[in-house]
Amino acid sequence: MSIWPAAHYIDLPGHGGAPDAEPENWLSTLPGEKPVLLIGWSLGGMLALKLALKQPRLIKGLVLIASTAKFCQSDDWSAGCPAPLFRAFERQAATEPERLLRRFFALMLQGDELAPSLKIRLQRSCVNTAAPPSARAMQDGLSLLQNMDLRPHLDRIRIPCLIVHGRRDAIVPLAAGEYLCEHLPRAEMRCFETAGHAPFLSHTKAFRKILEEWCQNL
Question: Which of 87, 74, 65, 100 is nearest to 174 (CA)?
């Protein structure tokens, strides 16, 4: 984007041709010494929060898109993925990873007011067919989603944060984004009323405008 001199895209382990790595080493450090604006989507947003706890001086701002402090439901957390659905994800990751990817991308755009043909094109554009996620990466990613609970640590993250969420998100409920906004000390939120899990794909122009305006005020 024009307001940034450079943008760097980080492939998680096992994605986009990057080698696999142990889950605890996923996005465990930032290269360089200059503070950056860190943007994370879904699991990427959770990993960005972990980095903000570990390297706060290297992050001047966080943008968390369709993310959460805790992915799975529990007795004290209703704004998460129900256990039966998550177990189905785990089974498919172990036996039918390609089918799990198709299921995820269908859920990703569920609720968006897009023509079916456009949804299909967007789903296809999200997969690097030359280097799709490895089977191990899919299982490790699910392990991270199952075990991470960042709720006790949110009040320690005093970096400016922008929370972006779709009201119709079928993967991470809107309540999860609202929780982040309420518990991160310097957070503000933008909600897309007719978006699902990927507002940057379904509402690209509006998303870009929000992002650029917020960044200019950092």
Answer: 65
